Amino acid sequence: MTGLHERLLLGELLARHGQLIDAGDLKGWLGLFAEECSYRIMPRDNYDRGYPVSLLQCDSRAQLEDRVVSLLEANKYNLHTDRHVIGVPTVSGHVGGVIKLEASFLILQADAEGVGGLFAFGRYVDEVVEEDGAMRFRSKIAIVDNFEIPRAISTPL
């Protein structure tokens, strides 16, 4: 059973996830992940059917770090502002120091001219561990329900 204090820490971790992406602090966002971690963005159909095909897949901390560096220094993408709305997480398991949780998300996005709308929505399926005295993502999967995302996915969901 997950206690109230632990649930508050998990909610804070998810809130920081959205907050750091919205602020453009991708290096800070990277700090929310454990040393051994993975991050994926998957269409719901693929996830539900057990297909491994992802829209974005980083299977190690090094791959995730490379993704962040490329976004900050090399890639050219549309300037935009994200706004995450993340639901209250539901803990679905707690085994061997790994907490499994799910939370719904909604991401709104505005372009450089301030024109905005719905960008992506779905749910996060996460595995969280305690590392160096803090809760960190060991695995984070953003499962998108909308199969037609209006613009390219450049920054993390």
The residue ranges in which pLDDT falls below 50 over 5 or more consecutive positions are none
Biggest pleated-sheet summary: 7 strands, mixed
C-alpha Rg, in Å? Answer: 15 Å
Mean pLDDT: 91
Q: What class would the helix/strand composition place it in?
A: alpha+beta
N- and C-termini, Cα separation: 29 Å
User: Would you identify the CATH architecture?
Assistant: Roll
**Percent of residues in helical segments?**
25-40%
Number of domains: 1
- How many beta-strand segments? 7
- The CATH topology comes to Nuclear Transport Factor 2, Chain: A
Order of SSEs, N→C?
Answer: HHEHEHEEEEE
How much of the sequence lies in strands comes to 35-45%
Helix run count: 4
Describe the structure.
This protein is 28% helix and 43% strand. Strands 1, 2, 3, 4, 5, 6 and 7 form a 7-stranded mixed beta sheet that branches. The model has no long low-confidence stretch (mean pLDDT 91). A hairpin with a 2-residue loop joins strand 4 (90-95) and strand 5. With 157 residues, the protein is of the alpha+beta class. The chain has helices at residues 4-22, 26-30, 44-49, 61-74; strands at residues 33-43, 56-58, 80-86, 90-95, 98-111, 116-131, 134-144. The protein has a single domain (4-144), classed as Nuclear Transport Factor 2, Chain: A, CATH 3.10.450.
